[in-house]
Design brief:
This protein is of the alpha+beta class. It has two domains: 27-341, Beta-lactamase; 357-437. The protein has helices at 11-28, 70-83, 93-96, 107-111, 137-141, 158-172, 176-188, 226-229, 235-247, 255-261, 327-341, 357-360; strands at residues 32-39, 42-50, 64-65, 205-207, 214-216, 232-233, 275-277, 282-286, 289-298, 301-308, 313-319, 364-368, 371-377, 383-387, 395-399, 405-407, 416-421, 427-432, 435-437. The strands form four sheets. An eight-stranded antiparallel β-sheet has the order 12-13-14-15-16-17-18-19, with no helix packed on it. Helix 1 runs antiparallel to helix 11 and helix 2 packs across helix 6 (158-172). The longest helix has 18 residues, at 11-28. The termini are far apart.
């Protein structure tokens, strides 16, 4: 029996999603709130509550200001420069953007917020004032831009992403806006993501903390700070962007590079072990799931875009209130609702298209000392080595041209796995970063470091 693919959601799931955003809008006292869920790269649900003061009901094509979600777009542009060989993430910023006054701060440290820069620019508060007040980088950075030693700790920095925007312009030779449009928005079809609002869009509001009254918030052009928080977008566009961040798109950035972005760049802040930061994306553990994405806020707006790659799900929540709703929490709840009600179907098992006899001969059990491991062949021509019982060190490995494999994850990431053969060509053992894996545990005559006791295995007497 063949089970066909089904992209829609069950009515009961849709009702639970609507209830969650309705609760968020009412309890968060937001004039309006839009939610959307994407599964396997395709938007499968969207809903909204509330409206603007005139009563217009928003939808998945209504623009909201998304604040710091902008940083993820900026990070993608930097990663493109790296992949093109125009810079290295370990390069000092000064190599490409001289005279900033931040010393040997690296590109990677700026991406991961470990450069030690101040969180904000000097007064007045940049989010509610025009960018024309900060026409130069010196106006953004202030007299003492570094608060911490670079590379030592995570310290979120809006000014760091201003520097990255200027870096993109210096290396690419076009404005940040031009690079954004040509290299991300157009290839991914994000036609409703813009620097300035394009109707239909929501008005940003401040909601009085002690009364059901609202006050319009300003919509400033942030100038040099734009790469840190300028963008307007929609639930539909952000669902498409989240799908790209999960799987990559060779027109923009490879799957390997977006996976690199989703890897923690620095240790989490002490006491905050359920949160972290990669290269332009936030990381979060909630409800036993790993989420990747970003939150955003500017006066009048809060936003959240979060995905669970393991579940193949992403959710976006946008609201037009300065405070109140918690879009990150709500978005992760939308993912959880779908994941629990309609778990992801596993991919059908299929035999490998081709099996190398020499590689197949390596499959099966191996022993590191008395620890039992299994070696599996993977569909991409690589192998996976993992313990067969208890906890232990396991990794996936990618084949290299010289016949070895390089570790992709876990303890052995970057380490080299190679087959060591005897003079007659038979396999002696596997060497993994000096660890020896043999076909039998401590077999006499095997290449076990330190040798094997001549008496062999024995009982208690």
């Amino acid at each position: 029996m063949t089970i066909s693919s089904f992209e829609g959601l069950l009515p009961s799931t849709e009702r639970a999603l609507l209830h969650r955003i309705a609760t968020a809008q009412a309890e968060g006292r937001a004039p309006s709130l839009v939610g959307a869920v994407a599964r396997n790269g395709r938007m499968v649900w969207t809903g909204s509550r509330g409206g603007d003061v005139a009563g217009a009901v928003p939808g998945d094509d209504t623009q909201y200001r998304v604040g710091s979600i902008t940083k993820t777009f900026t990070a993608v542009l930097v990663m493109r420069l790296r992949d093109e060989g125009l810079l290295d993430l370990d390069d000092p910023l000064e190599r490409h953007l001289p005279k900033t006054g931040v010393g040997e701060v690296t590109v990677a440290q700026l991406l991961g917020h470990s450069a030690g820069l101040a969180a904000e620019s000097p007064s007045p508060w940049w989010e509610r004032t025009p960018g024309s007040l900060r026409p130069e980088l010196a106006d953004v950075l202030g007299e003492e831009p570094l608060l911490h030693s670079p590379g030592r700790r995570h310290h979120y920095s809006n000014t760091g992403y201003t520097l990255l925007g200027s870096l993109i312009e210096a290396v690419r030779g076009v404005s940040w806006e031009q690079a954004l449009r040509a290299e991300i928005l157009e290839p991914l079809g994000l036609g409703r993501t813009t620097l300035r609002p394009v109707a239909p869009y929501a008005q940003g509001w401040a909601v009085h903390p002690w009364a059901d009254a609202v006050l319009p918030e300003p919509q400033e052009d942030l100038g040099l700070m734009a790469p840190a928080g300028q963008l307007w977008s929609t639930a539909g566009d952000l669902c498409r962007f989240a799908a790209f961040l999960a799987a990559g798109d060779d027109r923009v950035l490879s799957a390997g590079s977006v996976e690199e972005m989703r890897t923690a760049a620095v240790p989490p802040t002490p006491g905050d072990w359920d949160a972290g930061y990669g290269l332009g994306v936030q990381l979060m553990r909630r409800d036993g799931r790993t989420f990747t994405g970003h939150s955003g806020s500017l006066p009048g707006f809060v936003a959240g875009m979060w995905m669970s790659v393991d579940d193949g799900l992403a959710a976006v929540v946008l609201a037009n209130a300065t405070s109140g709703p918690m879009p990150g929490v709500v978005a992760s709840d939308l993912v959880r609702i779908v994941a629990e009600a309609e778990p992801r179907l596993p991919e059908p098992w299929r035999p490998l298209p081709d099996v190398s006899p020499s590689l197949l001969a390596l499959a099966g059990p191996w022993y590191w000392g008395t620890y039992t491991y299994g070696l599996w062949l993977t569909g991409d021509g690589g192998v996976e080595l993992r313990p067969l019982r208890g906890s232990g060190r396991g990794s996936r490995f990618r084949a290299q041209a010289d016949g070895t494999w390089v570790g992709l994850d876990g303890y052995y990431a970057g380490e080299i796995l190679k087959v060591v053969r005897r003079v007659d060509g038979s396999v002696s053992h596997l060497d993994l970063g000096s660890f020896v894996f043999t076909r039998e545990p401590y077999e006499p005559g095997d290449a076990v470091p330190g040798g094997v006791d001549e008496g062999g295995w024995r009982g208690s007497r």
